[in-house]
Amino acid sequence: MQVIGVTGLPGSGKSIVARVAKNMDVNIIRMGDVIRDEAIKRNAEIGETAVKLREEYGDYVVAERCVELIKEHSNDENAECELKFIIEGIRSPYEVKIFKKNFKTFKIIAIHSSPKTRFSRLKRRKREDDSSNVAEFKKRDNRELKFGIGNVIATSDYMIVNEGPVWKFKNSIRNILKNEVKKH
User: Fold this and answer.
1) Helices (H), strands (E): how many in the chain?
2) What are phi and psi of 104, to 5 degrees?
3) What is the pLDDT of residues 21-69, one digit of tens each?
């Protein structure tokens, strides 16, 4: 089983990585979906839920739930071929530790975009947890940085700077994914 993690601050382009991977028949697990689902159950805000989950269950909780999802998927009777997964939204070294423990060939792709570019994207995207307020944007970045995302980015296996045209970004993603698929 091949598992690749994707990390980056909000608006950097993680979801584009997931879309490209999906088009290459790679299964997608979104860490944010685990938190969003929990937020719905709790009738709470997503950011608040992300913090509370880790306070209640420890720093490993979201990663552990993702590992469970991958293992459930790989136990399906349709899973006879070599499975490939992208885990979108890794934020902490604790999560990396869990994934490396469970998947021996685990790699990380980090996506970097400037704050100005990311803020512009988030304003256009208008997802529930996105804000068009600069102060809220900075607050969200700081929360992500407190989770340890900076360390995850710094120790990633691959780094893609996403500041140019989207076609160029997608080509970089495809090249990395093709390279990783060949190895396994």
Assistant:
1) 9, 5
2) -65, -25
3) 999 999 999 998 999 999 999 999 888 898 899 899 998 999 999 999 9
pTM here? 0.88
To 10 degrees, what angle do helices 31-42 and 46-57 make? 90
Q: Which residue is associated with the tokens 């999802």?
A: 69
Could you tell me which of 66, 105, 96 has the C-alpha nearest to residue 156? 96
Class (C level, CATH) for 2-170: alpha beta
Residue ranges of the domains in the chain?
2-170
pLDDT digits (tens, 9 = 90+) for 98-146: 999 999 999 999 999 999 999 999 888 866 666 777 898 899 899 899 9
Instruction: Assign 3-state DSSP to the chain and report helix, strand, coil percentages, each to 5.
Output: 60, 15, 25
Residue 183 annotated as binding site:
no
Q: Judge whether 74 is annotated as a binding position.
A: no
* b/e burial code for range 154-181 (CB count within 10 A of at least 16 → b): eebebbbebeeeeeebbebbeebbeebe
15 labelled binding-site residue: yes
**10 annotated to bind ligand:** yes
* Residue 38, SS3 per DSSP: helix
The response to whether 165 counts as a known ligand-binding position is: no
